[in-house]
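User: Predict the structure for this protein chain, please.
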Amino acid sequence: MREAKEKRHFSSLLRDANSAFLPSPDTDDEPVRVGFVLLEHFSMMAFTAAVDALVTANLVRTAPLFSFCTFGLDSVMVKSDLALDISTSGELTLLPLEGEEALDILIVCGGYRCSLAEQPLLTAKLRAAAKQDIILGGLWNGAIPLAYAGLLDQHSCALHPDNHAFARERFDKVRVSERVLVVEEKRVTSAGPSSALEMMLALIEQVQDKATVRAIREILSCDQVADSDEAKLVLPADDPSFPETLRNLLRLMSTNIEEPLSVDELASFVGVSRRRIERLFQTHMETTPSRYYLELRITHARRLLLQSDDTIVNIAVACGFLSSTHFSHCFKDYFGISPSQARQKQRG
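Assistant: Here is the predicted structure, written as structure tokens:
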């Protein structure tokens, strides 16, 4: 029953992918087009981690930021490492590398049992993609086809540890890294499922912005398991890598949405200067405290807008905006459409 449920879920997900490349209805900018080449026995976990980052990026912004499609080497159906047959958008011969529907990013998804032999057609397609200046990536051992194509010469790459010896022996111009992910301007590689997500977040930050990545992390890392054997919800204010003062500031902001505190009030509560707060946010969040606070309130407002039947006026007040006009202006600046349009789109 679990296998059937997973198969229905992924079939639905991939049917959506097959209708990719539609222009955004809310903006003149088209979504970034991402293609995945699924090797036989590819890692389902690595693939879905990568796709989840793209889908979540679209959820945290009203206008779609990404579209994706999938390709098999010589068949529309590809068997994953879970023995599930996955329907792709098409065979590798259909890979769009030129014209209006050309890909912006192409990622090869490997897995523990994937063949390490060269696939001549894939080699040719990767070289053609490189000539079009398409960003190329690999999940698990997906870097190996890139190496066969000579596209990792003098580059570092991340691979699953089981493939390190093979890659070092076979590709003497490739620097096999001990790191779980390597992100360069036009080459991105990761060694497994967890690093696949981190690789995609780094890539999203590269082609979009840090604010989008922060929003994705807030959603996808909420059930992160701590070092103990007890699982707990993890919020930005609980991030152990942040200084205690910053964590206290984030808690104050998240618990004072309806009546926002000024930066001077925040400084008074935590016992540091305004300048110190600004430096903390710039160093660790790469934004200003005011901008972060606004993002926090506006994304909270969007959840209420889409998940409740409350009026826009009440939502504006609940999220600390002086008026519905001010709220609508901030919302449109951030999401690209008005609150009423966002609600109408969600329910339409």
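The chain has 14 helices and eleven strands.
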